[in-house]
Amino acid sequence: LYFGVTLNKAEDIPNVLPAHDEFVKSACAPVEERGVLHRYIMVTYSSYDQPVIESYGPENVARLKAVQNAYDPGLVSQRLVDGGQKTPFLNVPLSA
After folding, report:
1. Average pLDDT of the segment spanning 58-66
2. How far apart are the C-alpha atoms of 68 and 87, rounded to whole Å?
3. What CA–CA distance (Å, rounded) separates 31 from 39?
4. Taking the CA of residue 32 as centre, how many other CA atoms within 13 Å lie in the half-sphere pointing to its CB?
5. What angle do CA 58, 60, 74 make, to 5 degrees?
6. Average pLDDT, integer, range 71-96
7. What is the mean pLDDT of residues 56-82?
8. C-alpha count within 13 angstroms, C-beta hemisphere, residue 53
């Protein structure tokens, strides 16, 4: 499920985002209770705080880590690309 949120004022963020999270959880709960909630989260429809990459499963996350180690050992995609989903196994500050 995707429920987008658009705000006109930044000061609304502390109130709107938690309410949005609660709404999404309440919408997913009946689906999960029926056992038909798909484990994968589509990255283009994900919220900033959803564990998209983790939803791919441990084997796929391990493969992504191996690819990153081979092709991006300097962690450019972690450090220099602002926003978006990052690999869950690294928490690299953007200023590093």
Report:
1. 88
2. 9
3. 11
4. 9
5. 105
6. 70
7. 86
8. 13
Alpha-carbon span 27 to 30, nearest angstrom: 7
- In one-letter notation, the amino acid at residue 94 is L
Q: Is the dihedral of CA 54, 60, 62, 64 positive or negative?
A: negative
For 9-91, where are the alpha helices, taking DSSP H only? 13-33, 58-71, 76-79
**What's the first-to-final CA gap in the chain, in angstroms?**
35
Compute how many other C-beta atoms are within 10 angstroms of the C-beta atom of residue 41: 19
Q: Are 21 and 49 in contact (CB under 8 A)?
A: yes
Which pTM value belongs to this model?
0.61
Q: How far apart are CA 92 and CA 95, in angstroms?
A: 8
The yes-or-no verdict on residue 24 having pLDDT over 50 is yes
The closest alpha carbon to 47, from 70, 30, 65, 22, belongs to 22
15, 17, 20, 21 alpha-carbon torsion, rounded to 10°:
-120
